[in-house]
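Appendix B. Raw example, untouched.
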Amino acid sequence: MKPSITSAALLACCLLAPGVSLGQGGASSKADKLIADEHFSRGQELFAQGQYTRAAEEFERAYEIHPHQAVLANIAMCYDKAGKLAQAVVAYRRYLADPVDAGKNAKMQTRLLELEEMVGELDIECAAAGCRVVVDGVERGPAPVSVVVLPGSHPIEAYVGDEKIGVANGRVGRGEVARVEIGADGAEVSPAPAEPPTPEQPEQDDGISLGPGFWIASGITLAAGGATIAFGSLTVDAHDRYEAADRRDTEAKDEGERYRLLTNVMIGVTAAAAAAATAFAIYDVATGDEKDQVALTPGPGLGIGIAGEF
C-alpha cells in the first residue's frame, strides 16, 4: 500500500477558504447562492469543531443548492475524517471525475486508491424493467447500479414501482467487486458454479538445514557452559570459606584454586565448542547438503521446531 495521506492534510490543501463565494457554479438565483454560502460556512465551522459528519452534510446542502466541483473534495475529506469510508470513496470519485485543482489531483488519487482497498463494491443488475435497488435500507437508484459498501453482507431489495419484487444478499470483501443479479421474477440468479481450481501444493519450507556437526558442537557448548557455571559457583564458595576463616583455611584455599582452574578450562571449552558450532552452521548453510541433516522449522507461536533425517 502506498503511504497514507491523511484527510486532514488534504483538507488543508483543498478546503475552500472562509468567505469564498460559490458563485463559480452553474446558473442559480442570487438568493440560492447566498443560502449555499451559508451552508458552506457552517460546514467549515463544524469541521473546525471536529464534527465531520455534520460538516459533510452542510457541504452537501451547499452543493445541492449551488453545485461547485471543489465542494465535492470537502465532502470527501469530511467523510474520510469521520471514518465513513464508503461515502468518502464515492465523493472522491465524483470530485476526481472533473477536478478543479490539478496540483492536488495526485494526493487525492492516492488517498482514493488507499480507501478502495478498504471497502468493497456491489455491481447489481435486475432483469425486471424499471427495477429500483435498495441496499442497507437506502435507495441506490435504478438497476444496473454500482454501490460502494463496507466489507461484509448487505441486504438488497428490488422494487418495481412500490412493489417489492425480490431480495438478495450482497457479500463482498475488502478491495473486491461482487456481482449480484436479480431475475425478472425477483429471484436472485446464482452464477453457474465454476470449475474448482486444482489446488497447488504449497512449497514446503524446509527451513535452515544444519548437519550433525552443528548439533554435536552445540551440545558440547551447552554442557561445557553448565559445567563452567557449576565450577564457578564452587570457586566462589571455597573463596568465601577461606575468607571467613581469616585466610587460615588452607584446604579451602587449595580447593578454590582447583575449581578456579577447572572454571577457566570450561570457559575455554565452551568458547571453542561455540566457535565450532558457528563454523558448522556457516558451512551447512553455504553447501546446502541435505544428507543426514536436521532442519530448523517454524514452530508454534514464535518457537522453532526441529525435524530431520539421520
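End of appendix B.
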